[in-house]
From TrEMBL:
Compartments it resides in: Membrane
Membrane topology label: Multi-pass membrane protein
Protein name according to UniProt: Uncharacterized protein
Family affiliation: Belongs to the SID1 family.
A UniProt-annotated Pfam family: SID-1_RNA_chan
InterPro entries: SID1_TM_fam
One term under GO cellular component: membrane
Length: 146
């Protein structure tokens, strides 16, 4: 049996997806677990697509947007992991854990998480929109499908 690069990526994706997320990182709540599964899933599909474009010899545009996307998601996740309050705790306990607002005396880490992740989502979608701009003059039958 000949192992192709697609089969290798599928096995790698399967092991990393199940193993690293499920075993090495066990969050206390299901919402965080689901959020990280969705982020890792998006990153793996994006990397797979970029890898396949490279294997086919296609140009990859917008490396600046890719870098900005990675930076914004990293920053957003770092703010998400700052636990200033717990949604599973009582209201009194959650108020005790609250930290001072860090931006303009109004926004705390959770608000910053929402702002940065919204911008990261926007930049991610713009990147996906512009990823295949070099194929706009190519006939549809000449575009390799993987």
């Amino acid at each position: 049996m000949k192992i192709t690069h697609v089969l290798f990526i599928e096995y790698t994706y399967s092991f990393v997806y199940r193993g690293a997320i499920g075993i090495a990182f066990r969050p206390l709540d299901f919402a965080t677990y689901l959020l990280f599964i969705m982020i890792v899933n998006m990153v793996f599909y994006l990397l797979f697509y970029l890898f396949m474009k490279g294997m086919r010899g296609e140009n990859v545009l917008s490396f600046l947007l890719l870098g900005l996307t990675i930076f914004l998601w990293g920053t957003a996740v770092s703010f998400f992991l700052k636990t200033n309050s717990g949604w599973q705790d009582s209201a009194a306990r959650s108020r005790e854990m609250n930290a001072d607002c860090s931006i303009m005396g109004f926004y705390d880490a959770h608000d910053i998480w929402h702002l940065i992740s919204a911008f990261a989502l926007f930049v991610s979608f713009v990147y996906l929109l512009l990823l295949d701009d070099n194929l706009d003059q190519t006939r549809q039958t000449d575009i390799p499908v993987f």
